[in-house]
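> forwarded from #structure-qc
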């Protein structure tokens, strides 16, 4: 096996080199090596892809759909995305010019920020939140401004946003990053709460990047998109990974104004050329004939959520009822004297339960831990038995 030549050991991107890996993945892989551990770390649905969706991918292979698609994705898929967004959320996008199909929502996030950020530009990121926003902004030369929302029940209020923009300099803030339903908190913004934010940003020279990948997984009320209130400045990110358990198919998308989409599509074309054909045909089938597929999954997720929240609060782990997604985000009692990393490590090694430390989700996540209930009820119940025993030992 080749060893890196000493002459190039210092030839490295100085922005990326000091960065660690995604803590979510790091802890998941670390804990997976512990024999007998119940793993509740990754946001990986434990459901299979619906049969009719799998059949569409298989059929595309049989029909030799093996050549490059349009760089933005097959027009038929973009039409399906446009129709889905219209039917489900009353959002209107031209499939020819205002939609790009990406390799998962992760690529959509990267392409979007690449089209917005110049070196030194600032992006406001409410935390705790999905871990990848912060390093992507840094890689592109931007400055992530982490805003701790724990004091407001994980909501970024209009008042708080206005204060941050004033402190950071309105001329330097180029985007607000939203993720709702939220990972890791399950927080869902209502129309009125979104309007608070719109009132702050509508006259400012900044975008709202709205990652709504969990839009189909809300429990108390139907998802309302930021793009409905601020269509000309909102970049909508979504995909099929969570709604249809299609994580491995890697299909996401960007929807937004034509002039912005043209810029984001440049980065998309430079990095991946085009998405995979079988995955695109599967996604088209899911959006055209499988809109109701998530309903059965959501019912099961809600049962798991209710059980988990009751158990966690009963054990003394303060847990707000999540209104969406498939995570609980619980406070670690201060009397334990443990950081979120120390708590997660100790729980894994001594209690044989794998959770994700809150600090993995930004500054606002410290003092908490995330459980993914995209796992079987049997595993969740066993994990709660072990957590209770572990808690009593502390």
């Amino acid at each position: 096996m080749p060893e890196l030549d000493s002459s190039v050991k210092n030839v490295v991107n100085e922005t990326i080199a000091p960065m660690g890996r995604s803590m979510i993945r790091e802890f998941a892989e670390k804990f997976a090596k512990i024999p007998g551990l119940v793993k509740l770390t990754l946001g990986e649905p434990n459901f299979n892809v619906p049969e009719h969706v799998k059949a569409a991918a298989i059929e595309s292979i049989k029909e030799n759909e093996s050549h490059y698609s349009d760089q933005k994705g097959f027009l038929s898929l973009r039409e399906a995305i446009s129709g889905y967004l219209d039917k489900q959320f009353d959002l209107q996008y031209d499939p020819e010019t205002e939609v790009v199909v990406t390799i998962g929502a992760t690529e959509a996030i990267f392409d979007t920020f690449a089209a917005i950020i110049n070196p030194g530009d600032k992006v406001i990121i409410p935390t705790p939140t999905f871990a990848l926003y912060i390093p992507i902004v840094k890689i592109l030369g931007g400055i992530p401004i982490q805003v701790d929302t724990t004091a407001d029940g994980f909501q970024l209020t209009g008042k708080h946003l206005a204060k941050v923009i004033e402190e950071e300099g309105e001329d330097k803030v180029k985007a607000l990053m939203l993720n709702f339903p939220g990972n890791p908190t399950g927080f869902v913004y209502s129309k009125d709460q979104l309007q608070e934010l719109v009132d702050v940003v509508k006259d400012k020279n900044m975008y709202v990047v709205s990652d709504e990948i969990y839009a189909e997984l809300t429990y108390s009320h139907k998802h309302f998109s930021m793009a409905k209130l601020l269509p000309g400045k909102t970049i909508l990110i979504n995909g099929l990974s969570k709604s249809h358990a299609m994580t491995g198919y890697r299909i996401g998308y960007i929807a937004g104004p034509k002039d912005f989409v043209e810029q984001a599509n440049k980065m998309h074309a430079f990095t991946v050329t085009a998405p995979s054909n079988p995955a695109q045909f599967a996604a088209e089938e899911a959006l055209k004939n499988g809109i109701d597929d998530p309903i059965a999954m959501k019912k099961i997720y809600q049962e798991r959520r209710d059980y988990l929240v009751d158990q966690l609060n009963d054990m003394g782990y303060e847990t707000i009822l999540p209104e969406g997604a498939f995570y609980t985000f619980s406070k670690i009692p201060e009397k334990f004297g443990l950081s979120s990393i120390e708590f997660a490590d100790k729980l894994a090694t001594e209690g044989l339960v794998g959770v994700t430390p809150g600090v993995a989700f930004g500054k606002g996540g410290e003092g908490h831990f995330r459980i993914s209930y995209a796992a079987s009820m049997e595993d969740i119940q066993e994990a709660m038995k072990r957590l209770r025993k572990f808690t009593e030992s502390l």
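QC bot note: The first strand starts at residue 38 and ends at 39. The chain has two domains: 6-48+294-393, 51-289.
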